[in-house]
Amino acid sequence: MSNSVTVVPPGFDFQELYVDSRNSLPPSVLSWLASRRGCPVIAQVGMLRPEKGHEFMLNLLFHLKMNGRQFCWLIVGAGSPELREHLQYQIDSMGMHDDVFIADNVFPAAPVYRVASLVVLPSENESFGMVLAEASAFSVPVVATQIGGIPEVIQNNQTGTLLPAGNKHAWMCALNDFLMTLGVFIRWLAWQNRI
Prior knowledge:
- This protein is of the alpha/beta class.
- It is 45% helix and 12% strand.
- It contains eight helices and six strands, in the order H-H-E-H-E-H-E-H-E-H-E-H-E-H.
- The radius of gyration is 17 Å and the shape is globular.
- InterPro entries: Glyco_trans_1 (IPR001296), Glycosyltransferase_grp1 (IPR050194).
């Protein structure tokens, strides 16, 4: 008898995921996105729990905003009311209420990937990273922590960007590079459409 262990990742029904993506987002999300037209949408899909890195992400995005970067951060997922209240308080205290929207549960979450410019997963602990596989199915760029089962889903610098958990400098550089590159691309597209 062998002493080896085989890990079998969860299965995906990508056809169902694509069908689900045709659903409409909640009116509150659509309204918020319409008010932020033209800004890159950074999406974070997952439960509101301390280990998911929402506070870490908020602090990074605050610094990027102070450096002139434009974006909107769509948080999809529910959690304890206390944690949501605390996060909303921080968002408001930092003057980020126009830039960040907590959508609570969006089920199915697949329509989020249609509007996302980038999906982030700054978790301190993650067993697999199902969200990353879903985002990749829609060709949405991903930036995530290089922990747990995430490297089973994302190959660094090939299918996404993996960064050390909690490394503010690495995350700031990656997000800044993404936003700057996306800005250049959007300006190029606008110029091409004039021809």
